[in-house]
Design goal:
By secondary structure, this protein is mainly α. About 70% of the residues lie in helices and about 5% in strands. Helix 13 (about 345-360) packs antiparallel against helix 16.
Length: about 475
């Protein structure tokens, strides 16, 4: 049986802007607290006699859990909607924050703040990203930029808010208020309404137990659309239906026996993505950049202090960087979307510029040129971070995006666990923050070189294919 489905297009507006608002509320509520961790937990950690190593352990576990939660994203979003997963993650994260208010040991903080909060944060943020990709196509960059800009702004304002809460209520009261405030993420999750078709039917996944006929809802094709025009197989009951896309057909035979365990794991987590060399190159390159970005953000205040800047001057430099970062997220995506630039190409170019800019900054001392450098690298950083996750969505179909993004999160976690201690060791041995910044630039340049090789090889293959087709036409 051949079934021809009309491809469902993302609305690029309408309710999508409320989805953008919901995504912004989720990231703003759950991630803007990170820069204020030291301020919020300073007194209780001192009372518990927790040293700097323990403090770093709490944040390291939090970051690892957020990234490794990607293991569950693919399977969960195959069974539940992104609104349901995001709501569950939001409530889980907020519960962790509220329970942390009663913490009386380091283990309690790790269990509630790092593990419970990290798992919920990872699920909620990943689900909101999938929702944005579902509602936006041509304006996807704008939507992601707007949703991330609010978070950066909040990171500038939240420390002042935390300071006022601590003065008024102390640590336990402040954590209760922070946990309640973070519940705005649950409101944001409710805005992630599933996409409807033109007739107003909500897009649902068709399971064999729900529909015994051979007809697959038109709305279901959205989650099975292949952006590369390759035919897909949809399983319905005990039969597999052939789908015609772009004049191409996939044929499948009936299967009545259950697949083996390994095949089931492969289908559940979409592990066939790991056979895609382009996808692997993308996530490895992005993971290297993520490690360089996170460590640079951590070391920048120490570097500025090492060259003789006061705390006020350091804070001013960081604020300037954050301001130009926000400016880039609000303006550049609109320009790039208007001209149809590929998200990955933009990231490829700007990541190298970020690395070069940071190495130039590392060679400076106090002065106007250093301030100008911070203005530039803040703007460039905003351009890369907006297109970072979007580079993943460009190299896979919408159906596989939850698993693709989940595997990317796990990759980030593995690279952070492996390379961040190495960067710290290099700093201890060299006794130079400048040298460490150059090492991070080298890591970014590895991404640029690997992607450049891939782009070159791809261009040569396309040229060879075109030449062969032209030759065949001449012979005919």
């Amino acid at each position: 049986m051949n079934v021809d489905y009309n491809k469902k297009k993302a609305p690029d507006g309408g309710w999508g802007w409320f989805v953008c608002l919901g995504s912004s509320l989720i990231t703003l509520s759950l991630r803007s607290l990170d820069p204020s961790f030291g301020l919020l937990f300073h007194d209780p950690l001192e009372e518990l006699n927790v040293a700097s190593t323990g403090t770093s352990l709490i944040m390291s576990i939090l970051d690892s859990i957020v990234n490794f939660s990607g293991l569950f994203i693919g399977p969960l979003l195959k069974r539940y909607s992104y609104r349901q997963v995001a709501f569950f993650g939001s409530v889980l994260s907020c519960s962790g924050l509220i329970l942390t208010s009663r913490a009386n040991s380091m283990f309690h903080i790790i269990l509630t703040y790092s593990i419970l909060g990290g798992l919920g944060t990872g699920l909620a943020i990943a689900s909101s990203f999938v929702a944005l990709n579902t509602f936006f196509d041509k304006k996807r960059g704008q939507a992601v930029g707007f949703s991330m800009a609010g978070t950066t702004l909040a990171m500038m304002l939240v420390p002042q808010f935390i300071h006022l809460l601590l003065e008024a209520y102390g640590f336990r009261g402040a954590m209760m208020v922070v946990g309640a405030w973070a519940l705005h993420s649950a409101v944001g999750a409710c805005l992630l309404r599933p996409l409807e078709d033109k007739k107003g039917n909500v897009a649902k996944k068709c399971y064999p137990s729900q529909d015994k006929s051979n007809k697959v809802p038109e709305s279901d094709t959205l989650l099975h659309e292949n952006n590369n025009g390759v035919g897909l197989k949809l399983e319905n009951g005990n039969k597999k239906i052939d789908i015609v896309e772009n004049g191409k057909k996939n044929e499948a035979e009936d299967k009545h026996e259950d697949p083996p365990f390994l095949k089931k794991m492969k289908e559940t987590f979409d592990l066939d993505l790991l056979k895609d060399s382009v996808y692997l190159n993308v996530i490895i390159g992005l993971s290297l950049y993520y490690v360089a970005e996170s460590n640079f953000k951590l070391m920048t205040p120490f570097f500025l202090s090492s060259i003789g800047m006061t705390n006020v001057e350091v804070a001013s430099c960081l604020s300037i960087t954050a301001f130009t970062d926000i400016l880039a997220r609000l303006t550049l995506p609109t320009i790039f979307d208007r001209f149809g630039f590929k998200k990955r190409s933009v990231f490829w170019i700007f990541c190298l510029l970020v690395g070069i800019g940071r190495s130039i900054m590392a060679a400076q001392s106090k002065g106007i040129f250093l301030i100008v450098t911070f203005v530039v690298i803040g703007f460039l950083r905003g351009a890369t971070l907006v297109n970072m996750n979007l580079s993943v969505s460009e190299c896979c179909s919408l159906k596989k995006l939850p698993s693709a993004f989940g595997i990317f999160m796990v990759s980030k976690g593995l690279f952070v666990v492996t390379l961040s201690p190495l960067i710290g060791y290099i700093r201890d041995v060299s006794q130079s923050y400048t040298f460490c910044i150059h090492v991070m630039t080298f890591m970014i340049s590895m991404t640029f070189v690997a992607w450049s090789l891939e782009f070159t090889i791809g261009a040569l293959k396309r040229r060879a294919t075109s030449a062969k087709q032209a030759q065949n036409e001449v012979i005919e």
